[in-house]
Task: structure prediction
Amino acid sequence: MNYTFKRGVLLIAALFFVLSACEQKSEDAGSEFSIDFEKYTLDNGLEVVLHKDNSDPMVAVSVLYHVGSNREKPGKTGFAHFFEHMLFQNSENVGAGNFIKTMNDLGGSFNGGTWTDGTVYFETVPSDALEKVLWMESDRMGFFINTVSEWGLENEKQVVKNEKRQGVDNRPYGHKQYVQLVNLYPEGHPYSWDVIGSLEDLQNATIEDVKEFYEKWYGVNNATLVIAGDIDEEEAKAYVEKYFGELEPRAEVEAIKPWPATLETSKLLYHEDKFANVPDLHMLWPTVEKYHPDMWALDLLGQVLTDGKNSPLYKVVVEEKKLAPRVSTYNSSNEIAGTFNITARAFDGVNLNDLKAAFMEGFAKFEADGVSESDLDRIKIGLETSLYNAASSVFNKAYQMADYNTFTGDPGYFKKDLENSMKLTSEDIMRVYNKYIKGKNFLATSFVPAGQKELVLEGSEKASVVEEAIVQGAEGNLDQYDKDVKFEKTASKIDRSQAPPLNGELSFTPPSIAKESLSNGMQVYHIYQDELPMAQFSIRIKGGMFLDDPNKIGTAALLDNMLMEGTANKTPSELEEAIGQLGANVFVSTSREYITISGNCLAKNYEKVLALVEEIVTEPRWDEAEFERIKSSALNSIQQSGANPNAIASRIFNEVLYGEDHIFANPVSGTMNSVSGITLDDLKAYYEKNFSPSLASFHFVGALNKEDVVNSLSIFSDWEAKDVDFPSYEIKTKDDGSRIYFVDYPDAKQSVLNIGRVSMAGDNKDYAAATMANYRLGAGSGSILFRKLRLEKGYTYGAYSNYGRQLNGTTFTAASSVRSNVTKESVQLFKEILDNYGDEFSEEDMEATKTSILRSNTQSYETLGSLVGILQNISTYDLPLDYVQKDETTLKSMDVNEAKRLISEYMNPDDLIYVVVGDGKTQLNRLNNLGLGKPIVVNKDKDKLTIDK
Result:
């Protein structure tokens, strides 16, 4: 459950639609794209929005309560987010833990989120489960509060504390937002604390606090319910009335008024961050609240200043001064106040006074040059692509309609939102810059590595940051509380005691997949999908990091960036502009075993975008200046990862599993030593040796037929195939049998646990069945690991297990980040679960696995991206075109004995390696005598695994 929801966090800040509301039943939508919806209000005040989309047999439900952290009281901070967690625990008729269990059994996805201004709960399920979901949502809206227990309260406190430690206390720069908020807003301002709140406030929360919050803010008349997807509108209305209609309204919630921040003078704060490796500068200016008339111009100002190689701040900070690998500007407008932000994480040793001076120089360049019409056009053109991309998901539509309805009163505010951006001129953007930024007071935070205070802005004051001490037993023992709470059920006009049955037969026909081969050996995979006028495609070339020179790990990763830096016919800026003017997205990524070039655009622009991709793939520019920038940026990222406990755990884990001589013992990005020695000629050599159409597959999903797509690929006819030699690496796990390795990360507030082994090759015929056998163990919130470590013990925010598919050594991994003072207990519990999973796997587990996976597969085909992913799996692992259906057949025929065989063979508990990254002075000695031998201490600051004697 998340606490970082803001405008645009779901990648729908630019989600703009033209809608026709069913209440008005517009005769002509006036656009080639429209979304119909109906809004109505129940007698009790619940606002309901329905949107029908029968393209897939699934439905999304979103319930948004108009209460966020801005409704909290000083001394009770973090309560909105904490209450969001509590609502997943229990309700009178659904029962303790059954919301999560039922959602998983239904094959659904779900979550909740809290931000400054609201709290949202959402589910996406096969459409036959709509009534059941509405039964559950109404039960926690109207029949929750009597079920709250001391055990539930104390357990969830630990879960939320773990979330804070994981996302704030144990993360580089994690305290930055807190420092900004408490210094930007006056004491008592609703934004003067962060959403996660204070651990002290959280620990002091009582059941009476929970009841007060519920009664005041969780009334049916303070909520919006949106149902989007494969529905019958009249049936949906009947369900809504049945389950929500009898809920009594609460006292009317008073509207909260805008309260923008004001700064009488500029404020400069600094913090020496023990988890940071490079300096970070963040400056912000008070702006306007959400939907203020100036918001849209401020949003576009953020894009104009740093979006693209010709943007003024990129030119100065990145290209000319070379002070940071990237710089970002953005406007953030919330319900009652907003800020305009500029931030950059500098290169090692950069004085932040120099970075600030570069920011100001970039502003001066912007003032002198103004906003070019081509840049403004490019930004606006991109909105159309964003529109369709977001519309491919019923979840996105349900969430955004709920958000618009809550904060504007109109679920169809999409149209006005778009219009307000599209009508902006360069003069509008310069006006808001002069009004809110130029010469105005600001707040600046300098976060620097510990011991590097000399890098902070001159005149900065030390920020106050609350750091929690690691104390054994500080949280107490949950066993002292009774898990069961006795209560008298609330009366209802209907029988809510039994879950409603699934409605109708769930049926789905997967899309047809076609395959062709080009004369140069490139394989072509195609799915026709015309729900939206879009095209999404990728070229995947086998090799990736696996073909790196072992002495120059990171070459492929540098190459993926280099490919986007111009072509033989286009400078880097010209290539970027050409892509932008088509409203397209093109990017390159590298993994251990392949490089992927991906494109997304309107179908009408497909051939023009493909022509640019062909240039990128076959005619790299090899720009020396861009290479030096890319290399510097890569080294900066590697240096930052050295301060990230999760990255450290992953690096050590892989080296232990594969052995130090295996290529996969290294990060894909390489190390500081390996990348420092890579030259542009190394990239050219990798490209000439390993880029071949015979290793490439083209994957297309969209509104173009197969013949047109195959014909379009004739532009690759001159790309000649070559023989590529693949090396052979022997996997040499460090030890036979289970062992535990420990990496000391002083003062870590969380311990990162990685447990696993190399299990099989990725093309093993047992792979699909093995992932199914893992499902009950660690695949999501319904798993045993999640239930025992989070829901029952409160040790962690989440615990999971999975198979990481690779042709050259697929790993089985179980992992979590747990609070430091239960490191030993968490390792013990992991070991107990893993030791017993095979023996205890039951018929009930087998049936639950079958039901959940088979139902969840209905979501596998919804978006263009998910469909391209299916095609990529087929080409990468040489799977049959109907592998999803074949996997379903395998699952249906599986029995308990087969599951136990797979568990024993591929996740054998006697062969699992344990890696722990945590605070050595408090946790190391506690890890003796766990049946894993004495912990082997590893030095985290070496490129290669070194054992501390």
